[in-house]
């Protein structure tokens, strides 16, 4: 967390963020007014509000930024982006940072991160989200005991969903021609691996 | 002569006056008891027929003095302007018809008293005859050849006036000539602009009306507007010149950075001031002083020695913009550099906001925080407010201290002495009031040097008040920065540019134009023998009858403008051109030997005594209101215009300044049977609003002593009150009168009534 790392004001990280994360080229225009943090409905649930996170990027606090729960607790309501007087796409930048955090192994513990992983697994595998598999993968990502406890806790809801045909017990629904999807994803990964996007 | 003059009264019945009061009864008052030689009524005196009637009477000799009983003196001054016969204005509209119930007995008595007072004023005053020998020099002296001085000189010359421009250095341009780029002053206000001062210098040099004296200093300044006698030391040669007005544009000097050891100045050659960085930027390749490397990481520290009670307490307003300019220049020259601006509050008003955004877009990092230390290795320790941590920034190549501006209100070669704010009005300083002991002539405290520290002077004024221009708080030479910009309390001498308050080149140029216009006004007023603002056009001036004069020096000490000097035998001598006609000398004089032709102690006493005071059984108290013409009278006018009703028992006498109030008027009022006196003047103190600088303050001091006088008359001290009334106090001023009458009702009638 933030306390472990001190600010160096080495601009290397800020420049890297500006060059590699979509929308972050506008970060230098931040005037630290705090409109984003003030507008955030769950700002109190974050280690640092968006304003401070931007200041930490400038201060070169790479690890503290990438391990902050801010990236995962953002609900993407876009209040900050809409209200920013300097037109900084804050939501987009947080999302981009979250991707970097996953790639660099900073994420994992956060429920949001684990859910995102389960969601993406189902989507990439079947082309659809399967409620039963996504939910159980998410529950058991916190460990076996936690998975069992959570599953039992939500059993009644699951049964009602099955009854209402909102969840099914058979094989997961899949899209047709899943090979094409796999090809699309493989191409995307290849482009990503080539290096940063065009914007810098 | 005044007694013999034929005084004609003109009663206007328009604007509701005719409905509020009986004009016939007022005619009887004017021609009967008050002995006016003629009285005419008119339904609309200010219309062409009304004005023509008055003019015809003047032309036929039937009217030598005229009393216009109509509206306030503040309106229709142009309609009622008759050459050689200035009218006495008697306000029956704002102060009677519009603020009192129509047809009431008290309303009629009020109007009748105002007519009596106006006739008393006419009897005891005369039209001012003017000066015999006004100064007529129309050349303007501009001291200082920087942006402000150059602009003032050029603008004056282009307006058709001769200019003498004095610069102490060998070249024109001042500080402004040292900058390679300047802050943007033209759209789109985003990037540093080329410094165009060379064109300004060339224009001044080419202008035939301007004489430039470089390597020159003003050795002595005597006289007054229209006839300043100025002696120059021009590179060893002495030049004497008679000049009309003076513009002081001596600019600024940077705050002494050697006092900023805590910010690392002196510990490393790579800690520099903003001014020093300008030299480095102007030298071509940007290189660190220590080893000549290109600086890759630069931190600007804003407010270095500014807004700091231990250094300069004020904001110099330009440093934020200057640092942004320099940061952009560094980013341009060293594209891979990291540039930080560490600020407390970043102040980028107006178009400077676009400049700030441009710097952000160019990658300059703005940090909000307080720098606690700068080490010899350039590690900047900053309490980062936005991060909530104390940060030690290491690896910097250059630290720039954005130091503030100090005014050259005194001669800069004496800068070793710390700036001593010398407030012109010290509330603790003894002001000689009636009853106070008069210091021995020649003793130390007999001289009140209200001008500043004993260091080199810019103008070396040969004034009784000392050689300096008066200095306001923080060492800047100015009068009141909002109400009277450019004015200095030394008539005909104006300041502009950073000697007045911190400002940038564009502001200085605008400022210089304003000061040049003030100088032109002063020259023209001096040539016409009239007063300057705020009594512009007034031909009267203080006349001193030296026979009763006791050489007490109160007038010379208390004159806010240094207009009265002492002759070799200690008698007061008025330099009329410097006089602003406030009458503070008149109020100061214990033997009442100072008077104006159209304003005197005797005149106001007669006005006070002209009021008919009913006996105590009539239950109609009378209150005298001595109200300042500059703010209190407009406030009362505005009360009338908005139809505010207030007590009909108050009798208002407009005074030039509360400073002109003589203690005699108060004792006259109380012995005549008035139940109390209200003095309404402007705000005094450091943030004064007095149009004559310290008249209001002096009077408050004098009135502090009046309680003893009241006691000796066996009267309650509540019977005399002083209030500060601002021009916007249209609601409050009538309330003050009404509540004072409540007080009078409580303490009962004046026991002197009927004596």
Sheet having the most strands of chain A: none
Q: Which quaternary structure do these chains form?
A: heterodimer
Quick one: CATH superfamily of the largest domain in chain A? Answer: Alpha-helical ferredoxin
| Number of alpha- plus pi-helical segments of chain B | 19
Q: By helix and strand content of chain B, what is the structural category? A: alpha/beta
Radius of gyration of chain A: 20 Å
CATH architecture of the largest domain in chain A: Orthogonal Bundle
Strand content of chain B: 15-25%
Tally of discrete structural domains of chain A: 2
Please report the first level of CATH classification, the CATH class of the largest domain in chain A: Mainly Alpha
Average pLDDT of chain A, rounded to a whole number, is 90
What helical percentage do the residues of chain A reach? 55-70%
Descriptive tags:
heterodimer, A: 200 residues, Fumarate Reductase Iron-sulfur Protein, Chain B, domain 2, 2 domains, 12 helices, 56% helix, 0% strand, globular, B: alpha/beta, Rossmann fold, FAD/NAD(P)-binding domain, five-stranded parallel beta sheet, 19 helices
Question: Could you characterize what this model shows?
Answer:
The complex is a heterodimer of chains A (200) and B (755). Chain A is built from 12 helices and no strands. The mean pLDDT of chain A is 90. Helices cover 56% and strands 0% of the residues of chain A. Chain B is an alpha/beta fold and 755 residues long. Chain B contains 19 helices and 31 strands. In chain B, strand 17 (338-343), helix 10 (352-361) and strand 18 (365-374) form a beta-alpha-beta unit. Chain B starts with 6 loop residues before the first strand and ends in an 8-residue tail after the last helix. Residues 414-453 of chain B have low confidence and may be disordered. The chains are: A mainly alpha (200), B alpha/beta (755). The interface between A and B is medium-sized, with 18 and 21 residues.
